[in-house]
Amino acid sequence: MQKKMDRRQFIKLTGYGGGVVFASGLAGFGTPAFAARKKPPAAAEDFYFVQLSDTHWGFSNPAVNPDFEGTLKKAIAEVNALATPPDFIVFTGDLIQTTDDPAVRRQRMSEFRDIAAGLNVRNIRYLAGEHDAALDNGKAFREFFGETHYSFDHKGVHFIALDNVSDPTANLGEAQLAWLAADLAGRDREQQIVVLTHRPLFDLAPSWDWATPDGGKAVDLLLPFEYVTVFYGHIHQENHHMTGHIAHHSAQGLMWPLPAPLSVPKKGPIPWDSAAPYKGLGFREVKAGHEGTSLSELPVKA
Amino acid sequence: MKRSIQPVAAGLLVAAAGAFGFTAGWASDPPVQKIRMVKVSSKRYEFIPAQLTLKKGETVDIELSTEDIVMGFSAPELKLRATMVPGQVSHLRLTPQEVGRFDFLCDVFCGAGHEDMNGAITVVE
User: A207, A212, A214, A258: best mutation site toward chain B, by most B Cβ within 10 Å?
Assistant: First the structure.
Protein backbone atom coordinates (compact mmCIF):
# COMPACT_ATOMS: atom_id res chain seq x y z
CA MET A 1 0.00 0.00 0.00
CA GLN A 2 1.27 3.42 -0.81
CA LYS A 3 -0.16 6.59 0.57
CA LYS A 4 0.90 10.11 -0.16
CA MET A 5 0.75 12.47 2.74
CA ASP A 6 0.97 16.21 2.54
CA ARG A 7 2.05 18.44 5.39
CA ARG A 8 -1.48 19.13 6.57
CA GLN A 9 -2.42 15.47 6.60
CA PHE A 10 0.79 14.64 8.38
CA ILE A 11 0.07 17.15 11.10
CA LYS A 12 -3.49 15.91 11.38
CA LEU A 13 -2.48 12.27 11.60
CA THR A 14 0.13 12.93 14.18
CA GLY A 15 -1.88 15.38 16.18
CA TYR A 16 0.96 17.84 16.16
CA GLY A 17 0.27 21.25 14.70
CA GLY A 18 2.85 23.52 16.18
CA GLY A 19 5.33 25.15 13.87
CA VAL A 20 7.73 22.84 12.20
CA VAL A 21 7.76 20.10 14.77
CA PHE A 22 6.30 16.79 13.70
CA ALA A 23 5.84 13.48 15.37
CA SER A 24 7.55 10.89 13.26
CA GLY A 25 6.59 7.54 11.90
CA LEU A 26 9.71 6.24 13.56
CA ALA A 27 7.77 4.71 16.38
CA GLY A 28 4.58 4.13 14.47
CA PHE A 29 3.28 7.64 14.92
CA GLY A 30 1.66 9.11 11.87
CA THR A 31 -0.37 6.07 10.95
CA PRO A 32 -4.04 5.55 11.66
CA ALA A 33 -3.24 2.18 13.17
CA PHE A 34 -1.00 3.65 15.82
CA ALA A 35 -3.65 3.58 18.52
CA ALA A 36 -3.99 -0.16 18.10
CA ARG A 37 -0.28 -0.78 18.35
CA LYS A 38 1.77 -1.70 21.29
CA LYS A 39 4.15 0.91 22.52
CA PRO A 40 7.52 0.41 20.91
CA PRO A 41 10.41 -0.86 22.98
CA ALA A 42 11.98 1.94 24.92
CA ALA A 43 15.30 3.24 23.78
CA ALA A 44 17.97 3.16 26.45
CA GLU A 45 17.58 6.90 26.72
CA ASP A 46 16.27 9.78 24.66
CA PHE A 47 18.59 11.23 22.08
CA TYR A 48 18.58 13.17 18.87
CA PHE A 49 20.58 13.31 15.70
CA VAL A 50 20.87 15.87 12.92
CA GLN A 51 20.32 15.18 9.22
CA LEU A 52 22.02 17.35 6.63
CA SER A 53 21.65 16.63 2.96
CA ASP A 54 22.51 17.60 -0.58
CA THR A 55 25.28 20.04 0.16
CA HIS A 56 26.63 19.84 -3.42
CA TRP A 57 30.04 21.24 -2.52
CA GLY A 58 31.70 22.50 -5.70
CA PHE A 59 28.53 23.89 -7.22
CA SER A 60 29.27 27.44 -8.30
CA ASN A 61 26.35 29.11 -10.04
CA PRO A 62 25.64 32.39 -8.23
CA ALA A 63 22.33 32.79 -10.00
CA VAL A 64 21.08 29.71 -8.17
CA ASN A 65 22.85 30.33 -4.87
CA PRO A 66 25.05 33.41 -4.57
CA ASP A 67 26.43 32.04 -1.30
CA PHE A 68 27.45 28.70 -2.77
CA GLU A 69 30.66 28.71 -0.73
CA GLY A 70 29.06 29.83 2.50
CA THR A 71 25.79 27.97 2.89
CA LEU A 72 27.27 24.71 4.15
CA LYS A 73 29.50 26.59 6.58
CA LYS A 74 26.52 28.53 7.91
CA ALA A 75 24.62 25.31 8.47
CA ILE A 76 27.57 23.81 10.31
CA ALA A 77 27.80 26.90 12.50
CA GLU A 78 24.10 26.55 13.30
CA VAL A 79 24.53 22.89 14.21
CA ASN A 80 27.46 23.82 16.45
CA ALA A 81 25.30 26.45 18.12
CA LEU A 82 22.49 24.04 19.06
CA ALA A 83 21.83 24.23 22.77
CA THR A 84 22.39 20.52 23.24
CA PRO A 85 24.76 18.77 20.87
CA PRO A 86 23.24 15.93 18.86
CA ASP A 87 24.49 12.41 19.48
CA PHE A 88 25.55 12.20 15.88
CA ILE A 89 25.17 13.84 12.49
CA VAL A 90 24.26 12.19 9.22
CA PHE A 91 24.81 13.51 5.72
CA THR A 92 22.37 11.81 3.35
CA GLY A 93 24.28 12.17 0.13
CA ASP A 94 25.27 14.50 -2.68
CA LEU A 95 28.06 15.82 -0.53
CA ILE A 96 29.67 17.25 -3.66
CA GLN A 97 28.52 18.47 -7.04
CA THR A 98 29.28 15.84 -9.63
CA THR A 99 32.16 16.24 -12.04
CA ASP A 100 33.44 14.12 -14.89
CA ASP A 101 37.02 14.68 -13.72
CA PRO A 102 38.08 12.13 -11.08
CA ALA A 103 40.78 14.48 -9.77
CA VAL A 104 38.30 17.30 -9.27
CA ARG A 105 35.91 14.83 -7.62
CA ARG A 106 38.55 13.95 -5.04
CA GLN A 107 39.50 17.59 -4.57
CA ARG A 108 35.89 18.46 -3.78
CA MET A 109 35.59 15.53 -1.39
CA SER A 110 38.77 16.60 0.35
CA GLU A 111 37.45 20.14 0.74
CA PHE A 112 34.10 18.85 1.94
CA ARG A 113 35.78 16.65 4.53
CA ASP A 114 37.80 19.61 5.79
CA ILE A 115 34.67 21.74 6.13
CA ALA A 116 32.78 18.94 7.90
CA ALA A 117 35.70 18.72 10.32
CA GLY A 118 34.38 22.03 11.65
CA LEU A 119 31.47 20.21 13.24
CA ASN A 120 31.93 20.03 16.98
CA VAL A 121 30.22 16.65 17.08
CA ARG A 122 32.67 14.16 15.67
CA ASN A 123 30.32 11.20 15.33
CA ILE A 124 29.41 11.75 11.68
CA ARG A 125 27.79 9.21 9.36
CA TYR A 126 28.13 9.75 5.63
CA LEU A 127 26.00 8.44 2.81
CA ALA A 128 26.68 8.88 -0.87
CA GLY A 129 24.47 10.51 -3.46
CA GLU A 130 24.69 9.92 -7.18
CA HIS A 131 26.78 13.08 -7.51
CA ASP A 132 29.36 11.47 -5.23
CA ALA A 133 29.33 7.89 -6.39
CA ALA A 134 27.51 7.09 -9.63
CA LEU A 135 30.37 7.80 -12.03
CA ASP A 136 32.93 5.55 -10.34
CA ASN A 137 30.69 3.08 -8.46
CA GLY A 138 31.54 4.76 -5.18
CA LYS A 139 35.32 4.39 -5.41
CA ALA A 140 36.26 7.96 -4.47
CA PHE A 141 33.54 8.12 -1.82
CA ARG A 142 34.89 5.03 -0.09
CA GLU A 143 38.40 6.50 -0.12
CA PHE A 144 37.21 9.53 1.83
CA PHE A 145 34.13 8.47 3.78
CA GLY A 146 34.06 4.69 4.07
CA GLU A 147 31.56 2.08 2.99
CA THR A 148 28.44 3.08 1.11
CA HIS A 149 26.10 0.72 2.98
CA TYR A 150 26.35 -0.32 6.59
CA SER A 151 24.38 -0.57 9.81
CA PHE A 152 24.89 0.45 13.41
CA ASP A 153 23.01 0.58 16.68
CA HIS A 154 22.51 3.60 18.86
CA LYS A 155 20.72 3.55 22.20
CA GLY A 156 18.33 0.80 21.20
CA VAL A 157 17.60 1.99 17.67
CA HIS A 158 18.96 0.05 14.69
CA PHE A 159 20.19 2.26 11.86
CA ILE A 160 20.65 0.97 8.31
CA ALA A 161 22.39 3.00 5.60
CA LEU A 162 21.41 1.89 2.10
CA ASP A 163 23.26 2.77 -1.10
CA ASN A 164 21.00 3.43 -4.09
CA VAL A 165 23.49 5.56 -6.00
CA SER A 166 26.76 3.68 -6.63
CA ASP A 167 25.02 1.76 -9.37
CA PRO A 168 24.41 4.39 -12.07
CA THR A 169 20.99 2.85 -12.71
CA ALA A 170 20.11 3.70 -9.07
CA ASN A 171 19.37 0.15 -8.07
CA LEU A 172 20.22 -1.31 -4.68
CA GLY A 173 21.15 -4.56 -6.35
CA GLU A 174 20.67 -8.15 -5.32
CA ALA A 175 23.89 -8.30 -3.28
CA GLN A 176 22.90 -5.36 -1.09
CA LEU A 177 19.35 -6.65 -0.75
CA ALA A 178 20.76 -9.98 0.43
CA TRP A 179 22.93 -8.08 2.92
CA LEU A 180 19.85 -6.20 4.14
CA ALA A 181 17.90 -9.43 4.57
CA ALA A 182 20.77 -10.88 6.59
CA ASP A 183 21.02 -7.71 8.69
CA LEU A 184 17.32 -7.95 9.53
CA ALA A 185 17.24 -11.71 10.08
CA GLY A 186 16.40 -12.67 13.62
CA ARG A 187 15.90 -9.09 14.71
CA ASP A 188 13.07 -8.19 17.13
CA ARG A 189 10.08 -7.18 14.98
CA GLU A 190 9.31 -4.39 17.45
CA GLN A 191 12.73 -2.83 17.50
CA GLN A 192 12.86 0.70 16.16
CA ILE A 193 14.60 0.78 12.80
CA VAL A 194 15.79 3.88 10.98
CA VAL A 195 16.82 3.60 7.35
CA LEU A 196 19.09 6.26 5.90
CA THR A 197 19.45 6.56 2.15
CA HIS A 198 19.77 9.12 -0.60
CA ARG A 199 16.98 8.51 -3.08
CA PRO A 200 13.37 7.71 -2.25
CA LEU A 201 12.80 3.98 -1.92
CA PHE A 202 9.35 4.37 -3.47
CA ASP A 203 8.15 5.81 -6.79
CA LEU A 204 7.82 9.43 -5.77
CA ALA A 205 8.24 10.79 -9.31
CA PRO A 206 10.03 8.40 -11.67
CA SER A 207 9.87 10.81 -14.61
CA TRP A 208 11.93 13.22 -12.49
CA ASP A 209 14.30 10.42 -11.51
CA TRP A 210 12.88 10.49 -7.98
CA ALA A 211 12.70 6.76 -7.36
CA THR A 212 14.78 3.65 -6.75
CA PRO A 213 13.88 0.98 -9.32
CA ASP A 214 14.26 -1.90 -6.86
CA GLY A 215 13.51 0.12 -3.74
CA GLY A 216 10.26 -1.78 -3.30
CA LYS A 217 12.26 -4.91 -2.55
CA ALA A 218 13.91 -3.15 0.39
CA VAL A 219 10.55 -1.90 1.60
CA ASP A 220 9.18 -5.45 1.40
CA LEU A 221 12.02 -6.66 3.61
CA LEU A 222 11.28 -3.89 6.12
CA LEU A 223 7.50 -4.26 6.20
CA PRO A 224 7.45 -7.07 8.78
CA PHE A 225 8.99 -4.67 11.30
CA GLU A 226 6.58 -2.54 13.26
CA TYR A 227 8.54 0.66 13.67
CA VAL A 228 10.47 1.68 10.60
CA THR A 229 11.24 5.18 9.37
CA VAL A 230 13.22 6.18 6.30
CA PHE A 231 15.15 9.45 6.06
CA TYR A 232 16.47 10.44 2.67
CA GLY A 233 17.56 13.42 0.55
CA HIS A 234 17.85 13.84 -3.23
CA ILE A 235 14.74 15.96 -3.77
CA HIS A 236 15.92 19.10 -1.91
CA GLN A 237 12.71 19.61 0.04
CA GLU A 238 10.61 18.05 2.76
CA ASN A 239 8.28 15.32 1.65
CA HIS A 240 6.37 12.92 3.87
CA HIS A 241 5.00 9.68 2.53
CA MET A 242 3.76 6.34 3.81
CA THR A 243 4.25 2.90 2.27
CA GLY A 244 2.05 0.81 4.50
CA HIS A 245 3.11 1.66 8.04
CA ILE A 246 6.61 2.82 6.98
CA ALA A 247 7.14 6.58 6.97
CA HIS A 248 9.51 8.21 4.50
CA HIS A 249 10.81 11.72 5.18
CA SER A 250 12.97 13.63 2.72
CA ALA A 251 15.12 16.52 3.88
CA GLN A 252 15.74 20.01 2.63
CA GLY A 253 19.03 20.55 0.83
CA LEU A 254 21.81 23.00 1.47
CA MET A 255 22.47 24.42 -1.99
CA TRP A 256 19.18 24.94 -3.85
CA PRO A 257 15.55 23.98 -3.32
CA LEU A 258 13.55 22.08 -5.93
CA PRO A 259 9.85 22.33 -6.77
CA ALA A 260 7.24 19.92 -5.44
CA PRO A 261 7.11 16.62 -7.31
CA LEU A 262 5.70 17.02 -10.85
CA SER A 263 4.43 20.50 -10.00
CA VAL A 264 6.12 22.14 -13.00
CA PRO A 265 6.77 20.86 -16.54
CA LYS A 266 10.54 20.72 -16.09
CA LYS A 267 12.42 20.08 -12.88
CA GLY A 268 14.91 22.78 -11.99
CA PRO A 269 16.17 24.80 -9.04
CA ILE A 270 13.78 27.28 -7.46
CA PRO A 271 15.36 30.69 -8.13
CA TRP A 272 17.18 32.42 -5.30
CA ASP A 273 14.90 34.93 -3.61
CA SER A 274 16.96 37.94 -2.58
CA ALA A 275 14.05 39.05 -0.39
CA ALA A 276 14.23 35.73 1.45
CA PRO A 277 17.78 34.44 1.12
CA TYR A 278 18.35 30.75 1.92
CA LYS A 279 14.62 30.10 1.64
CA GLY A 280 14.02 26.38 1.25
CA LEU A 281 17.46 25.46 2.58
CA GLY A 282 17.90 23.87 5.97
CA PHE A 283 18.49 20.80 8.05
CA ARG A 284 16.63 18.57 10.44
CA GLU A 285 16.73 17.41 14.02
CA VAL A 286 15.36 13.93 14.67
CA LYS A 287 14.53 13.26 18.29
CA ALA A 288 14.19 9.63 19.31
CA GLY A 289 13.47 7.84 22.48
CA HIS A 290 10.94 5.90 24.47
CA GLU A 291 8.09 8.23 23.51
CA GLY A 292 8.73 7.85 19.81
CA THR A 293 10.33 10.39 17.56
CA SER A 294 9.73 13.93 16.39
CA LEU A 295 11.19 15.96 13.56
CA SER A 296 12.18 19.60 13.71
CA GLU A 297 12.99 21.41 10.49
CA LEU A 298 15.51 24.20 10.92
CA PRO A 299 16.22 26.83 8.25
CA VAL A 300 19.58 28.22 7.25
CA LYS A 301 19.44 31.69 8.73
CA ALA A 302 20.18 34.74 6.62
CA MET B 1 -0.79 2.65 -20.81
CA LYS B 2 0.12 -0.73 -22.23
CA ARG B 3 2.57 -1.32 -24.96
CA SER B 4 1.17 -3.29 -27.81
CA ILE B 5 2.77 -4.82 -30.84
CA GLN B 6 0.76 -5.22 -34.03
CA PRO B 7 1.37 -8.54 -35.76
CA VAL B 8 3.72 -7.84 -38.62
CA ALA B 9 3.08 -11.25 -40.17
CA ALA B 10 -0.58 -10.43 -40.83
CA GLY B 11 0.42 -7.39 -42.83
CA LEU B 12 2.74 -9.43 -44.98
CA LEU B 13 0.02 -11.94 -45.69
CA VAL B 14 -2.43 -9.28 -46.87
CA ALA B 15 0.20 -7.72 -49.11
CA ALA B 16 0.89 -11.08 -50.70
CA ALA B 17 -2.83 -11.74 -51.29
CA GLY B 18 -3.22 -8.39 -53.00
CA ALA B 19 -0.37 -9.21 -55.32
CA PHE B 20 -2.21 -12.32 -56.46
CA GLY B 21 -5.51 -10.51 -57.04
CA PHE B 22 -7.40 -11.91 -54.06
CA THR B 23 -8.24 -8.56 -52.57
CA ALA B 24 -12.00 -9.21 -52.36
CA GLY B 25 -11.44 -12.39 -50.41
CA TRP B 26 -9.29 -10.62 -47.84
CA ALA B 27 -11.50 -7.63 -47.29
CA SER B 28 -12.34 -8.56 -43.72
CA ASP B 29 -8.74 -8.97 -42.60
CA PRO B 30 -7.14 -6.47 -40.24
CA PRO B 31 -5.89 -3.39 -42.05
CA VAL B 32 -2.27 -3.42 -43.00
CA GLN B 33 -0.25 -1.19 -40.72
CA LYS B 34 3.21 -0.12 -41.61
CA ILE B 35 5.45 0.27 -38.60
CA ARG B 36 7.17 3.61 -38.63
CA MET B 37 10.70 3.78 -37.35
CA VAL B 38 11.76 6.71 -35.21
CA LYS B 39 15.46 7.09 -34.56
CA VAL B 40 16.69 8.60 -31.31
CA SER B 41 20.37 8.98 -30.68
CA SER B 42 22.09 10.30 -27.59
CA LYS B 43 25.36 11.82 -26.59
CA ARG B 44 26.60 13.75 -23.57
CA TYR B 45 24.11 15.15 -22.53
CA GLU B 46 21.18 15.19 -24.90
CA PHE B 47 18.71 13.11 -26.83
CA ILE B 48 18.47 13.84 -30.53
CA PRO B 49 15.67 14.55 -31.10
CA ALA B 50 14.43 15.34 -27.63
CA GLN B 51 10.85 15.86 -28.75
CA LEU B 52 8.91 13.09 -30.47
CA THR B 53 5.41 13.38 -31.86
CA LEU B 54 3.45 10.16 -32.35
CA LYS B 55 -0.09 9.45 -33.43
CA LYS B 56 -2.50 7.69 -31.15
CA GLY B 57 -2.90 4.10 -32.33
CA GLU B 58 0.11 4.19 -34.62
CA THR B 59 2.73 1.55 -33.95
CA VAL B 60 6.25 2.90 -33.99
CA ASP B 61 9.62 1.32 -33.52
CA ILE B 62 11.96 3.61 -31.61
CA GLU B 63 15.53 2.82 -32.58
CA LEU B 64 17.95 3.91 -29.87
CA SER B 65 21.67 4.47 -30.07
CA THR B 66 24.36 6.32 -28.16
CA GLU B 67 27.42 7.98 -29.57
CA ASP B 68 29.70 8.02 -26.55
CA ILE B 69 28.76 6.41 -23.23
CA VAL B 70 26.10 4.17 -21.73
CA MET B 71 22.79 5.97 -21.38
CA GLY B 72 19.28 4.99 -20.41
CA PHE B 73 16.04 5.84 -22.16
CA SER B 74 13.10 5.75 -19.78
CA ALA B 75 9.52 6.93 -20.23
CA PRO B 76 8.01 5.79 -16.93
CA GLU B 77 4.40 6.65 -17.74
CA LEU B 78 4.60 4.53 -20.89
CA LYS B 79 6.52 1.80 -19.09
CA LEU B 80 9.23 2.03 -21.72
CA ARG B 81 12.89 1.64 -20.89
CA ALA B 82 16.05 0.53 -22.58
CA THR B 83 19.76 0.76 -21.96
CA MET B 84 21.74 2.38 -24.76
CA VAL B 85 25.22 0.96 -25.24
CA PRO B 86 27.83 2.45 -27.56
CA GLY B 87 28.14 0.41 -30.74
CA GLN B 88 24.75 -1.23 -30.28
CA VAL B 89 21.23 -0.39 -31.38
CA SER B 90 18.20 -1.18 -29.28
CA HIS B 91 14.53 -1.02 -30.15
CA LEU B 92 11.35 -0.16 -28.30
CA ARG B 93 8.03 -0.71 -30.02
CA LEU B 94 4.83 0.89 -28.85
CA THR B 95 1.34 1.78 -29.96
CA PRO B 96 0.23 4.74 -27.85
CA GLN B 97 -3.39 4.56 -26.80
CA GLU B 98 -3.73 7.95 -25.13
CA VAL B 99 -3.03 11.45 -26.31
CA GLY B 100 -0.86 13.61 -24.10
CA ARG B 101 2.69 14.41 -23.18
CA PHE B 102 4.91 11.71 -21.72
CA ASP B 103 8.31 12.72 -20.44
CA PHE B 104 11.38 10.59 -20.93
CA LEU B 105 14.78 10.88 -19.32
CA CYS B 106 18.17 9.29 -19.11
CA ASP B 107 18.03 7.00 -16.09
CA VAL B 108 21.69 5.96 -16.11
CA PHE B 109 23.75 8.59 -14.32
CA CYS B 110 26.08 9.54 -17.12
CA GLY B 111 27.95 12.65 -16.03
CA ALA B 112 27.83 16.29 -15.13
CA GLY B 113 24.96 17.10 -17.48
CA HIS B 114 22.89 14.02 -16.69
CA GLU B 115 20.12 15.81 -14.87
CA ASP B 116 19.30 17.95 -17.88
CA MET B 117 19.08 14.98 -20.21
CA ASN B 118 15.41 14.53 -20.90
CA GLY B 119 12.72 14.92 -23.52
CA ALA B 120 9.07 14.21 -24.21
CA ILE B 121 6.84 12.09 -26.39
CA THR B 122 3.73 13.95 -27.47
CA VAL B 123 0.87 11.73 -28.63
CA VAL B 124 -1.71 13.39 -30.86
CA GLU B 125 -4.97 12.22 -32.46
Answer: A207
Domain boundaries, chain A: 2-37+50-299
Using CA atoms of A36, A45, A52, A100 in order, give the dihedral in degrees to the nearest 10. -100
Mutate to test the interface with A, among B109, B114, B115 (most CBs of A within 10 A): B109
Q: Which of A149, A241, A161 is nearest to A196 (CA)?
A: A161
CATH number for the domain including B59? 2.60.40.420
Residue of A nearest to B70 (CA): A168
User: Which residues in B lie closer than 8 A to residue A165 (C-beta atoms)?
Assistant: 109
| Backbone torsions φ then ψ of A233, nearest 5 degrees | -130, -125
- Band (pLDDT 50/70/90 cuts) for residue A42 is low
Closest partner residue to B111 among A100, A203, A211, by Cβ? A100
Burial class (CB in 10 A: 0-12, 13-18, 19+), A99: middle
B16 within some domain: no
Query: What is this model's ipTM?
Result: 0.83
Which chain A residue is nearest to residue B107, measuring alpha carbons?
A: A169
In a domain, B93, yes or no: yes
- The reply to whether residue B76 touches residue A206, judged by beta carbons under 8 angstroms, is yes
Residues of A in contact with B74 (CB under 8 A): 206
Query: What is the sign of the dihedral through the CA atoms of A251, A182, A226 and A151?
Result: negative
Question: B 90-119 residues with CB below 8 A of A?
Answer: 103-105, 107-112, 114-115, 118
CATH 3.60.21.10 fits A2-37+50-299, yes or no: yes
Cβ pair A135:B111 closer than 8 A: yes
Q: Quick one: what percent of chain A has pLDDT higher than 90?
A: 80
Asked if residue B72 is part of any domain, the answer here is yes
Let me know if residue B73 belongs to a domain.
yes
Task: Render pLDDT for A144-187 as a digit per residue (tens, 0 to 9).
Answer: 999 999 999 999 999 999 999 999 999 999 999 999 999 999 99
Task: Verify whether the Cβ–Cβ distance A207 to B112 is below 8 Å.
Answer: no
As for how many domains chain B has, the answer is: 1
Residue B70 contacts residue B35 (beta carbons within 8 Å): no
pLDDT tens digits, A92-106: 999 999 999 999 999
